[in-house]
Amino acid sequence: MSNFRTVVPEAMKTNYDVFHFAPATVIDNRVYASGQIGIGPDGKSPENLDEQFTLAFESVGLVLKEADATFDDIVSVKDRYVKEPYPAWTAVGTTELAIPGAVVEIKVIAHI
C-alpha cells in the first residue's frame, strides 16, 4: 500500500475541521495540494488581484513547508514563485470563487 498522510498546517486546521478537506495529501513522494485561494487573515479576499495571487502563493508555501517541500519541488504551477525549468500549468477564468470577491485559486503538485 502507498505511504499516505494528510497535511494540515496549524493555521488551516479550522478549515479542515469545518469543510472536511485537507490542504494537501502526500502519497509516496508526491504532494497533492488542494487549491489555495487568495484570502487574508480576516477571511476576505482583497480586491487587488496581485494581492490575491500573493496571498494564494503564501498559502501554497505554508502547505508545502508542512509537507516538507518547497516551491523548487513543484511540478505543476506558474511563475513568480517558480523558477526555470517551468512546470506544467493551467489557467481557468472565473468570475468568483466560494469567498466573495475571490478569483484566484492555486493548486500544485510537488515531488519530494
List the helices and strands and how they pair.
Layout: E1 4-7, H1 13-19, E2 24-27, E3 30-33, E4 36-37, H2 49-66, E5 74-76, E6 105-106, E7 109-111
Antiparallel strand pairs: 1-2, 2-3, 3-7, 4-6, 5-7
The neighbouring-strand order within the major sheet is: 1-2-3-7-5
> What is the 3D form?
globular
**Average pLDDT figure:** 89
Radius of gyration: 14 Å
User: What order do the helices and strands follow?
Assistant: EHEEEHEEE
How large is the share of residues in beta strands?
15-25%
Structural class: alpha+beta
Helix content bin: 10-25%
Poorly predicted parts: none
Summary keywords:
112 residues; alpha+beta; two-stranded antiparallel sheet; 2 helices; 7 strands; 20% strand; globular
Structural write-up:
- With 112 residues, this protein is an alpha+beta fold.
- The chain is built from two helices and seven strands.
- The chain has helices at 13-19, 49-66; strands spanning 4-7, 24-27, 30-33, 36-37, 74-76, 105-106, 109-111.
- The strands form two sheets. Strands 1-2-3-7-5 form a five-stranded antiparallel β-sheet, covered by helices on one side. The protein has a two-stranded antiparallel ribbon with strand order 4-6.
- The longest helix is centred in the middle third of the chain and has 18 residues, at 49-66.
- The chain is globular and about 40 Å long.
- It starts with a strand and ends with a strand.
